[in-house]
Design goal:
The complex is a heterodimer of chains A (305) and B (179). By secondary structure, chain A is mostly helical. Chain A contains 15 helices and no strands. In chain A, 27% of the residues are buried. In chain B, 74% of the residues lie in helices and 0% in strands. The chains are: A mainly alpha (305), B mainly alpha (179). At the A-B interface, helix 1, helix 3 and helix 4 of A face helix 2, helix 3, helix 5, helix 6 and helix 7 of B.
Chain lengths: 305, 179
């Protein structure tokens, strides 16, 4: 082993091991042997030793007080970020899905489904008049009538007043002369809770004034109406269709208590006109100033009153 | 560290308690700036977390840690020029003047500051070998692994660095004597 430290250059490098306390025992002895006979290397050894010790005494700053909290907040932030990333793994997604099935979420889901179903139903109904608007020949409409009537009758019973209004105007288009439709319209006129629906129904029925069933139904309806608007509109219709049988029910209406003043005047006018008409032998409809030419404007005047 | 790698990130606290001081010294000897060094230490621990999958467990943990630390130091050196080196040595010298134990007084305060300055004047490569060996107490073998070189080369470099340090130090001493 002595051969290892023959050259001074080797000794100098060996000194580094010696300083770092990494020199094996046998090599350390060889080094000592060289140093004993080499003053230059001894001087070198002393110098590096001094320097090495001095370096060991070099001050190192104490970690500041913020250092530890900073590290742990960094660690916590890292963990949080890590968890956020893991949240997207399939397993965590499943767990999340399970947590979604809480009563509140289930309730919302049920509401959503109900809403979608209702929306779908309404959409289907709105398509119905559009279907009716399609031009249909007499033969085709004969075939289609039963189905359409069924739809119409269903629609007349709809809880929504808007839908019933649609049904009424629809009835005017498709099958006004059908017995069942007329019966349904008369029933609507007498029983529908909505004044506008009753007025619209009356308008349609007034157009069917040539039908004896309609005329009879309208006369009977006089006693059943309680809305001033419908009452005066009915009175107008009686004049329009020249229904003399209505004079008696009209007179009876005048006897009602709490009858609207405007309606009273209107009924009296109608009775007068109908009586005069009979007197002039039912020949000249132009003398009836209260009788508008179209059902539309007649309705307007009645609403105005 | 293997536990940290396996997902027990909270075990990083143990590593911090054990190594934040040596790392602080490592950076401080390199740049002489205590505040900047602390930031760099935090960066090292952050990178340990971020790159924990690169720790294979084959080599010693400290080798891996200093590998990261060297990269952090190199990145920091790229960012700001070495002009900041050893700026607050004078501050430390003053602090030590008041608080140095009497039996440690082999070197006077002035000499400590001078040695620190001399260390700062070494080339980064030379200084690094000395710092890792003397202050971090890494074996030459570990340093060789870290620097991707042979043990013999590390020893030679350390020897030359020490000689260089001595020369610089003596030159400073002569210079201050002239004044």
């Amino acid at each position: 082993m002595e051969a290892k430290f023959i050259k001074c250059e080797d000794v100098r490098v060996g000194l580094m091991d010696w300083l770092a306390n990494e020199l094996p025992a046998d090599e350390a002895r060889a080094l000592e042997a060289h140093l004993a006979g080499c003053p230059d290397c001894r001087r070198e050894q002393a110098a590096v030793w001094q320097l090495w010790q001095a370096m060991g005494n070099l001050p190192v700053p104490e970690p500041s007080e913020q250092m530890r909290p900073q590290f742990y907040s960094m660690l916590a932030g890292f963990q949080a970020a890590e968890q956020r990333r893991q949240r997207w793994s399939a397993e965590v997604l499943l767990a999340k899905l399970r947590s979604w099935w809480q009563p509140a979420y289930a309730y919302s889901l049920v509401l959503l489904v109900v809403g979608l179903a209702a929306g779908y139903g309404l959409k289907g109904r709105q398509e119905l008049p559009a279907m009716a608007a399609q031009p249909t020949g007499p033969a085709a409409s004969d075939n289609e009538l039963p189905g359409r009537q069924a739809q119409l009758l269903t629609l007349l019973a709809d809880p929504s007043a808007v839908q019933r209004l649609r049904a009424v105007s629809y009835a005017e288009e498709i099958a006004p002369t059908n017995d069942r439709v007329v019966a349904a319209l008369l029933s609507t006129l007498n029983q529908d809770p909505n004044v506008n629906v009753r007025l619209a129904t009356l308008e349609v029925l007034a157009g069917l004034g040539h039908d004896p069933t309609v005329r009879q139904g309208l006369v009977r309806s006089l006693a059943r109406q309680d809305s001033p608007l419908v009452q005066s509109a009915l009175a107008d219709v009686m004049v329009q269709i020249q229904e003399h049988r209505s004079v008696r029910p009209l007179r009876r209406m005048l006897e009602q208590e709490n009858l609207n003043e405007q309606v009273k005047i209107k009924i009296e006018e109608s009775i007068q006109t109908l009586s005069n008409d009979r007197a002039t032998d039912n020949s000249n409809p132009q003398i009836y100033h209260e009788t508008p030419s179209s059902p539309q404007s007649r309705l307007d005047t009645s609403v105005a009153t | 560290m293997l536990q940290v790698k396996a997902g027990q990130v909270e075990k990083m606290g143990l590593l911090f308690e054990r190594y934040h001081r040596p790392l602080l010294a490592f950076f401080y000897h390199a740049n002489g700036n205590a505040t900047a060094s602390e930031d760099l230490v935090q960066t090292v621990f952050y990178r340990m977390l971020k790159y924990r999958h690169t720790f294979t467990g084959e080599g010693e943990f400290r080798t891996w840690m200093y590998h990261l630390a060297r990269n952090v130091l190199a990145d920091a050196a790229k960012k700001d020029k070495p002009a900041a080196h050893h700026q607050d040595v004078a501050d430390w010298a003053e602090k030590l003047a008041g608080g140095a134990p009497a039996d440690a007084g082999l070197l006077k305060t002035q000499e400590v500051a001078q040695l620190h300055r001399a260390l700062g004047q070494l080339s980064p490569d030379q200084r690094e070998v000395l710092v890792l060996s003397r202050f971090q107490e890494l074996k030459y073998e570990q340093i060789a692994e870290l620097l991707n070189t042979t043990v013999g080369a590390v020893k030679v470099r350390a020897h030359r660095a020490l000689g260089q340090l001595k020369d610089i130090y003596l030159k400073m001493e002569n210079g201050s004597k002239v004044h």
